[in-house]
Amino acid sequence: MKRMGLRLIALNRILGLLIHCWLFLLESKASLFTLKDDSENSSSSSSSIALVPALFVMGDSSVDCGTNNYLPTFARANHLPYGRDFDTHQPTGRFSNGRIPVDFLALRLGIPFVPSYLGQTGNVKDMIHGVNYASAAAGIILSTGSELGQHISFTQQIQQFTDTFQQFILTMGENAATTLIANSVFYISIGINDYIHYYLLNVSNVDNLYLPWTFNQLLASSLSQEIKNLYNINVRKIVVSGLAPIGCAPNYLWQYGSVNGECVEQINDMAIEFNFLMRYKIDKLAMELPGANIIFCDVFEGSMDILKNHELYGFNITTEACCGVGKYNGWIMCLSAEMACNNASNHIWWDQFHPTDAVNSILADNIWNGRHTKMCHPMNLEDMVNQKPK
C-alpha cells in the first residue's frame, strides 16, 4: 500500500508537470501569435529599423492627430467624413480624409504613428516613440484662434513637452532622457492660423498696428525664440514646415470672389514673406546654436508645384474642396458625410483649408528626400537622420 501510495504521488507529480508543460506551450504559442500580430500591425505602419528614437510634433491643424478631440472647441475633426480614408476608416481628429504629413514621415523614420498628448495614458512606454502636441486653431500668438474655443497654443505645447521630458528623466535617468531627446526628430508646423484667425480677421485692429511685413517679422522672431527654448532643453534635430499657399484655399477663393479659381495673391504674398524670413532665421540659428540641426521645408513651393502640375500628379479638381458647402465648397467646413465627394484622391483640397491625404503624401515625400521637388533647406530629413556624428 505504501509503495502504491508513492507511485500515485509520483504519477500525480508527473501528470502535474505534463499539464504545466502543456500550459506553458499553449501560452508560448499564444505569445508567438500575439508577437506575430503585433509585428504585422507594426509593419503596416512602420519599417523594421527605427532611424530615430522618437518623433515629437508641435503645431496646428495641419499636424493635429486628435488633441482637440478632448477640448471644448469648434475646431474638431472627430466625426465622419474626416478619417474615412485613414487606416482605420474612422475619424481620429486629423483634419484630412486620411493621413497627415507626420504620419507618412513616421513610416519613413521606422516608428509607429505617435499619439496626441491628451490622447495617451501618460505612461512613458506610451510616449517613448514620440508625442504629438499639435492643436487645431493654435498659432504663434497666444490668442490666435480663441474665437473657436479652447486650444493648446504653441508656447503651451512646448510646456507640455517639457513635462514629458521630466517624466522621461524620472523614469530612465537624465543621461538616457537627454540622449533620447537629442537624437529624436521634432517637427513644427505653425503660423498659418496667425493669418487665418488673427491678422486677416483684423483681431484687435491688428492691421492698423502692423503692416504685413512687420507682422511677419514679429511671427518669425517669436518662432525663432521658441526654437531656442527647445534647444535649451537638448532638442537638436528640428524640421520647420513653412506656410502653405492659403490664398489658394477654397475658403479664400469663396471669400474674395475668385472668378475662375485664381489664388488671392495678397494673402499668398504674406505666406511667401514669412517663409523667406523663417529660412533666414533658421540659417542664423544654425550658426548660433552648436550641434543644432535645423531644416526649413518650404511647403508653399511644394504646394504650388502640385497646383501647377496637377495633371502629372493625378489631380483634376484643383480649386473645389471635396467636402463643404458654397462656391468652391469654401463657405462652411466639412460637417457631415453627405457634404463630401465620393473620391478625394483626385482633389487637392479636402475641406476649406486642408489638403487631401494624397497631397499630404506628396509633401511628406518632398520633406523626406525631395522626391518630386526640392522643398527643404539646407538638407532633406533623410539626410539629417542619416548624418554620421562628427
Describe the structure.
α4 packs across α5 (174-183) and α8 packs parallel to α10 (265-288). Strands 1-2-3-4-5 form a five-stranded mixed β-sheet, sandwiched between helices. The chain has helices at 2-45, 101-109, 124-127, 154-172, 174-183, 193-199, 206-209, 212-231, 250-255, 265-288, 299-308, 310-313, 357-369, 381-385; strands spanning 55-59, 185-189, 237-241, 293-297, 376-377. The model is unreliable at 1-47 (pLDDT under 50). It has two domains: 1-45; 49-385, Rossmann fold (3-Layer(aba) Sandwich). Helix content is 46%, strand content 6%. The protein has 390 residues and is mainly alpha-helical. It comes from Lupinus albus. Pfam families: Lipase_GDSL. Keywords: Hydrolase, Lipid degradation, Lipid metabolism. GO terms for molecular function: hydrolase activity, acting on ester bonds.
Identify the notable features of this structure and list them briefly.
390 residues; mainly alpha; Rossmann fold; 2 domains; 5-stranded mixed beta sheet; 14 helices; globular; disordered N terminus
Please provide the count of β strands: 5
**CATH homologous superfamily assignment of the largest domain:** SGNH hydrolase
Strand content: 5-15%
Tally of alpha and pi helices: 14
User: What is the mean pLDDT?
Assistant: 89
The side-by-side strand order for the widest beta sheet comes to 1-2-3-4-5
Gap between N and C termini: 80 Å
Task: Pick out the low-confidence regions.
Answer: 1-47
Please identify the top-level CATH class of the largest domain. Alpha Beta
Q: Determine the CATH topology of the largest domain.
A: Rossmann fold
Shape verdict: globular
As a percent range, the share of helical residues equals: 40-55%
Structural class: mainly alpha
* H/E element sequence: HEHHHHEHHHEHHEHHHEH
As for the number of domains, it is 2
Instruction: Please compute the radius of gyration using only Cα atoms.
Output: 25 Å
In the CATH classification, which architecture of the largest domain applies? 3-Layer(aba) Sandwich
Largest sheet: 5 strands, mixed
